[in-house]
Amino acid sequence: TQLLEQSPQFLSIQEGENLTVYCNSSSVFSSLQWYRQEPGEGPVLLVTVVTGGEVKKLKRLTFQFGDARKDSSLHITAAQPGDTGLYLCAGARKNNQGGKLIFGQGTELSVKP
Amino acid sequence: DVKVTQSSRYLVKRTGEKVFLECVQDMDHENMFWYRQDPGLGLRLIYFSYDVKMKEKGDIPEGYSVSREKKERFSLILESASTNQTSMYLCASSLKTPWGLLHFGNGTRLTVT
Prior knowledge:
The structure holds two protein chains of two kinds.
Chain A: E1 5-7, E2 10-14, E3 19-24, E4 31-37, E5 44-49, E6 55-58, E7 61-65, E8 71-76, E9 85-92, E10 101-103, E11 107-112
Parallel strand pairs in A: 2-11
Antiparallel strand pairs in A: 1-3, 3-8, 4-5, 4-9, 6-7, 7-8, 9-10, 9-11
Chain B: E1 4-6, E2 10-13, E3 19-25, E4 31-38, E5 42-49, E6 56-57, E7 64-70, E8 73-78, E9 87-94, E10 103-104, E11 108-112
Parallel strand pairs in B: 2-11
Antiparallel strand pairs in B: 1-3, 3-8, 4-5, 4-9, 5-6, 7-8, 9-10, 9-11
């Protein structure tokens, strides 16, 4: 059972366009993390959101945690080729002992110049 | 910066062979994890460890075992490799915090023929 549904799975856009990636669940998470993975490398943490309704910005990336802490979104403004990669959301359940995360399937983003 | 090092980037093994994947982290993290990554399935947890000589099954432990004799080292063992174990294997470590921020290695791409 996939507890975190990520959409879309694939996204191919032109440089300068905006995009949003969604991460949805019927379960409540104590925190949610977003990772980016480039080819040949392991995922790298971008951000962690822990409070319902929280919004965090990282340059052109905006992350939001849903009020009920069941969903999250990643919005990229004016995408650049350097944003190309696999984006993964991961949720931590309550009483998590640290690191036992549930991952979404990932969104493969390609930004063409 | 935390460094998580996986001993091999690429491995090719034959069906039935015993395979060892090694992972070492240099930041004294309590938690260590082994994931496998397959297209469209995201990351799936195989085994994890919260302390030396301690291990717990993840979501897909069948066909795998692990060893953690020292805090910095976590080994994944495929007792008798099969073709359905062809995958990307990712090791990660984290501090024992509620949010479990994972630091990943660069992965081992294993092909079983």
